[in-house]
Amino acid sequence: MLRQLFIAMGFVSLLTVSAVTHAENDDLDELQMKLTNEWTLVKNDRLRDIKTYARLEDGKRYRSFKATVLMKEVKPETLVRLILDFDNYNKWYWQVLESKLLKKVSPTEYYLYLVHKAPTGLPDRDVILHATVQPQTATRNYLLLKVDTEPNYIPPKPPLVRMIAEDLSFKFTPVNGNDIFVEAEGYVDPGGQVPSWAANFIQHSAPYSVALGVLRMLKKDEYVKSREPVPFKVYSYNDYMEKQRLGQLPQAQ
């Protein structure tokens, strides 16, 4: 009986090691995949409806990335509360050690400061981001969030290395059934000297990690049950269609 138990334990251990090795090999294959200037699928999580892509662009040191995710049963107000809660980005955004709002220019324009944890052996990075929101209009049923890097907005903070780029674009489109389809594109240049493996690892891992973080945070009561009004109008799919039918949507500026 004891001999059978040891054999069973050994078999389970072998399966575990094989599964881990297979996962590591998958990650290595994805990091080493040959990229072109066309989007190449990197990860397809069918369970969570997340897809990530990568490509190479002329004039850029590192790969660009794209991600799509279908957020199910999410109110637009809940999503806006999350993305404008800049001081809590460390709870879900990619390797954030510190996050804070520097300046609110208007309800749709912000400057924020992030400190990112770098891979082992590299100095941590900081970045100043200029975020602008384009709300839904009579001719645009989606919400657009654009993020551009402003490296000279505040003085450097050694030993942190100031990032050159963390340029992002998020398109949030409500779809039938109270879901929101998200399309995100971006490019990150961490600045300084960074081994290609580290930069590729970040570009490979960050989009998927951020998508998982958003899905997790959107379930929290602090966003779902909040009665705090959002600073601009947002519409679910049905609300948008009804407002459009009645001619009650704002015109594009």
From TrEMBL:
Residues of the START domain: 39-200
Span of the secretion signal?
A: 1-23
One GO MF term, please? lipid binding
Q: Which Gene3D superfamilies match?
A: 3.30.530.20
Sorted keywords for this record are: Signal
Record GO cellular component, one term: cytoplasm
Give the PROSITE patterns listed for this entry: START
Q: Which positions are tagged coiled coil?
A: none
- InterPro entries for the chain: START-like_dom_sf, START_lipid-bd_dom, START_lipid_transfer
- Record keywords: Signal included? yes
Q: Does the keyword Metal-binding apply?
A: no
Looking up PANTHER family in the UniProt record yields: PHOSPHATIDYLCHOLINE TRANSFER PROTEIN, START DOMAIN-CONTAINING PROTEIN
The molecule here is called START domain-containing protein
Q: Which organism is it from?
A: Agitococcus lubricus
